[in-house]
Every structure is written in structure tokens, then in C-alpha cells.
Amino acid sequence: MKLPPRTVERLSKYRRLLMEYKHEEEAHIFSHNLARLLNITPEQVRRDLMLIGLTGNHRKGYSIQALLDLIGKTIDSYDPQNIAIMGIGNLGRAVTAFIRKSESRLRIVASFDIDPLKINHEIEGVHCYPVSETEKIIKKLNISIAILTVPPDAAKGIVKILTNSGIKGILNFTSVHLDIPENVYLKDYDIITSLEEIGFFIKAR
Amino acid sequence: MKLPPRTVERLSKYRRLLMEYKHEEEAHIFSHNLARLLNITPEQVRRDLMLIGLTGNHRKGYSIQALLDLIGKTIDSYDPQNIAIMGIGNLGRAVTAFIRKSESRLRIVASFDIDPLKINHEIEGVHCYPVSETEKIIKKLNISIAILTVPPDAAKGIVKILTNSGIKGILNFTSVHLDIPENVYLKDYDIITSLEEIGFFIKAR
């Protein structure tokens, strides 16, 4: 199914929100409720859900269970994605702990570092391998996504190793601009950019 | 100046990228170069820069120094923003270190925690205060932005304290849905959503 990135992002958010209600049997929700909870318009919600083939009931809204099922069928893979953490410092540990506690199908199966005190230890419940074994382990453990939490000056070197290893997706926390082959899906997250956006809008008020 | 959030986000990204070239005198850059580096269209770049009143030279492109100056004038406040870190665990420490190392005008002036081993110590160069003093310290240090890096079950309680303290902006890393008064600017960052988006697009290939 072809969907725009922003739609996929919102579908994931709808699901995260709806998980809180999943234990209530026969629960329904209206598009305007979902919209209000996420600060978007009801039209946006209805458009997204129409794209994955769901229309609400005018009187009762959407069935929460049907929504959860269909979003799962749309955005989840048949097999859970295996993930590697590149650099298991403070940020790498925080991200690992966060994902392991979440109710998602994402699995962190390895971390990589150059620190001898970390290598071959379990950190946040995940085995740490030496960076020199990246290519071997990524293939062996069928890892498709790498999370980049190394220091900025290590970023480009690590990405070269990752693309040589056949990685398919990268979530980049380093704020370094990465030149990535077209067959790798890159998503950047830059904390400074988020804060500058907040700064601009609170100044404008 | 009224600008859409996505434009502000991109202006911040243009600046982060251009900083690498700022030491070259009289350097210029074309919209298509900027566009390629950020995986967007040249039209998008030109539209954003037109919104802040800048047009490029057909032959030479945009002056990098003029770009940096005008983006700064547009998105920076006259006074640097003071920032507080709510919860100085692994994620809070990583975020603090990251911002302090960045060449931005953002200043972290306090962190807050409930752990007696952290309170009244300097962590990543920032003083840690007890959460019970949040309201007092936020007013005293003129803090306008809070970064939420507490455990999920603490999020709602902390946000209540923050809004009572007159905070103007919140960057939320907890993935908890927050109900925020309209005069507070909220930006959510959810790691799971980013990873699910990557997972969807690498599956679709």
C-alpha cells in the first residue's frame, strides 16, 4: 500500500493513543475525539482512515478494535523488525530502555560500541558487540533498522559500515547530515531544530 | 512574522547545514544544492526563503552569510531561551550534553529530579533542583522551555506543575498524550512512531 510518510506517522500515533482504550469491549471513538487528542482536524483523521479503507459509523464513530487491527495490518511487517543501536552511551541506553518498555513489535537485538568496558556485556538487556563486527552481526541477526546514537564525528564512518552491511533503515539522532544511498530509508531527528521551533512560536505569541 | 511550523523547522535545518560553510568568505549556495542535501525540492527551499524575504541570484545562488543572518533574525529571540530538563536520567543527561555541545543559542539553566543522589549536584554541567522547587526556580531563572524526560507515569503530574509555573513551551519525549493549555506550545517526539514509519517504508520497497 502506498501512503505518504505523514499519514504513516499519524496512523502510528492513533494506535499509540487507542491502545489505552483497547481493554474496553465494543468501545467506539469519533474522528473529532481522535482529532482533538492529537491537535489535528477531524477531516485529517477521516482522510487518513479512508486511505486504509475504513469509514466510521455516523452514530457510533469508529470501532476501536477494528481501527487497531487495520492499522496493525497496514503498518506492521509480518515479521517484527530487528533493530541495532549504534553507540550505547547515555542516549543509546535511554532509547533502548524506552523501546523495550513500549508495547511495540520492535525488537532491539544488538548494540555496537568501541568501549572495551561495554563490549561483550549486556546493557539494558541487550548484548553489546564491537563495531568491527557490525557487518557480520547485522547479517547474522537479520537486522533491518539501525538507530544512530554515536558522537557526531563518528556518524559518517558508521553509516558507511551500515550501508555496506545491507541495512534498510536508519534513525539518525546525531544531527549530522548523512549522504545515504537511495535504497536506505533515513529519518533524522534533531533536538535543536525542535527547540528552535518551540522558541520561535512562543516568541510570536 | 507568521510562519508555518514546517517552515520554521526547515529554516532551522538550513541553518544547521549552512553553519558548516560559514567560514568560507563570499560563499554562495543554490536552492537545488540545499534541497538535495535535505531531500526536499528546490521549489520548497525557494518558497521558504521567499517567506522570510530572500531571493537568490540566478547566477550565484544565495549568499550563505546573508542566509545565516536572516534566518537568525527570523527564528532567534532577542534574548536566548532558558531551558529546564525535567528528569535527569539517561535521556535527560544525553539531551543536556547534546545541547551544550551544539552551537546554538539555547541555554540549559536547570534540571529537576526526585532522586536525592542527584539533587543539589551538577549533572552534565547543570545544577539539579528538587522537583518540589520547580515553580520557584522556573520563575527565578526566567525559564521558558521545559524538556520532558521523566518516566511516562510521572509526565502528567510534572506538566501540571509546569503550566502552573508559567512555562511557555514543552518538548515531550515521554510518548504520553498531554492535555496542555492553549497558551503553551507543545512539541511531541515519539521514538516508536519514527521507527514504525521506517519499518513501513522499508517493507514497502
**Amount of beta strand of chain A:** 15-25%
Structural class of chain A: alpha/beta
Oligomer type: homodimer
Largest sheet of chain A: 7 strands, mixed
Report mean pLDDT of chain A, rounded to a whole number. Answer: 90
Secondary structure tally, helices of chain A: 8
The N- and C-terminal alpha carbons of chain A lie at a distance of: 41 Å
Structure description:
- The structure is a homodimer of 205-residue chains.
- Chain A is α/β, with parallel strands linked by helices and 205 residues long.
- Helix content of chain A is 42%, strand content 17%.
- Chain A is built from 8 helices and 9 strands.
- A 7-stranded mixed beta sheet of chain A has the order 5-6-4-3-7-8-9, with helices on both faces. A two-stranded antiparallel sheet of chain A has the order 1-2.
- In chain A, strand 7, helix 7 and strand 8 form a beta-alpha-beta unit.
- In chain A, helix 1 crosses helix 4.
- Chain A starts with a helix and ends with a helix.
- In chain A, 40% of the residues are buried.
- The mean pLDDT of chain A is 90.
- At the A-B interface, helix 1, helix 5, strand 8, strand 9 and helix 8 of A face helix 1, helix 5, strand 8, strand 9 and helix 8 of B.
How would you summarize this macromolecular structure in one to three sentences?
2 copies of one chain form a homodimer. Chain A is of the alpha/beta class. Chain A has helices spanning 5-18, 31-38, 42-51, 64-75, 90-101, 134-140, 155-164, 191-203, and strands spanning 28-29, 62-63, 82-86, 107-113, 122-123, 126-130, 145-148, 169-172, 185-188.
